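Recall the central idea of this unit: under ordinary conditions, the amino acid sequence of a chain determines the structure it adopts. In this exercise we apply that idea directly, starting from the sequence alone.
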Amino acid sequence: MIELLRHLYLRLRHSRLARLADATFRAYDAEEPVAATFRARQIQAVIRLTPLMMAANLLNVAVVVAMFWPTGPSWYLACWALAIAAVVTSTMHAWWLLRRRGPRRTASPRAMRRAVLHAATLAALWASMPVYLFPDATPAQQLLVAVVTTGMLSAGGFALASIPVAGTAYVVVLGCASGVALARADFELGGAMGALLMIYTAIVIGGIWGTARLFGARLMAEAEAERQNEVIGLLLRDFEEHASDVLWEVDANGRFRHVSQRLARLFNKPAAELAGLRVFDLLRGAVPRDEAGAGQLAALRRHIDARTPFRDLSFVVQAGDEPRWWSITAKPLLDSQGRYDGWRGVATDVTETQHANRRLSWLANFDALTGLANRHQFRGELEVLVSRGTDASRPFAVLFLDLDNFKSVNDTLGHAVGDSLLQQVAQRLLACTRRGDTVARLGGDEFAVVLRDVASQDEVLHLTRRLIDSLHEPCLVQGVRITVGTSIGIAMRHKTGTTSTRC
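Accordingly, the structure predicted from this sequence is:
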């Protein structure tokens, strides 16, 4: 027999009707452990209303006992009141314990079944009241029973809506008991009133499940939002730890809302110290106090005052022992009412990019081996000087140098010795020229010198002899003494015109 009942139960559980009922009477569709969290939230929603509902239970019990005690069965009233008082006491004790422990994060299906059992028990106690007292009561007492029963049915369904199975059990038990009470009473309109009562009961049950689905949808939305926030938080933490960019956000007063460790390292200050500083004051203390730094701060101040977004605003910040270059992008924040609420942006450390750009710029204008100006820069400076036309007030001279026997040094001693020799020649040329002159390597063993603001041709010849004497001195390169000579061609523009000679 037991096996037959079990077989019938399993067939009914997996039938189409069971699946339809499960889809209809389901507040949400979630898997463990999310469902465990949802169950805890459902129970917590009921617990918030527990003191109010238990107070309503005691108040209604007191009213019913007071109205029926003079004429009604005192033994039933006493037992019924004590039973509800015991349930109320037990419920409030459990509520007090849960409040002391704090909200539960998860709840098991067993906890939900206990909630259903508790609701059904309380409903059964209230159901016995109309069944036992309504048929023999006076019209005034019957009106009181009807009002109390209807109120308890509606209020209980509302309070238990977050746990729809418990709310349904409560309303069904109390509604059926009211129907039984009407059937036992000698009413001409008993049938019509019973039908209306069933309709009201169905409406309350529909309201319970509608509210439960809304509550479940909110739980699902909150769970999804929390999951997305966790993902975003993980991505932001990973971004802050591994990316070269730093996210930052300040409030309407200009103070950081969140200081990451990377941001603290960027300023070389503790995170707690940064949290209390205004970002503009922080930058003002870190930016070099020169014309460029003042211009950068002025540009930032213009954007802050106008509250206009900006992109790739460059800053040179002294963080630690060496300067760092930042590129800052930001936009103003607005609250839900459209009021200014601070700034949010990204700071990118572009120090390596700046160094690389400077290196490329240097390589475009200077010789990598000797550090002298290259042919490109030499031609540019010469074009500027020549473009002045016949301005004889700024005379200049150009010396072209070609080392003697350099090819034989390369062929016999190797290119490494030749490169070291060229470096020593470059140093000697720089030592013999003035600060405002330009020394360039045109390529191979060819050099050039631009002498600016020369007073006379004799001054040019004097500087040329110094160069020749310096280059004729032997060079010690990797333990080898090498003597090289040089031939120098001279072109000069002076007051009387242009002359050229060769030494």
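The chain has three domains: 26-225, 243-356, 366-502.
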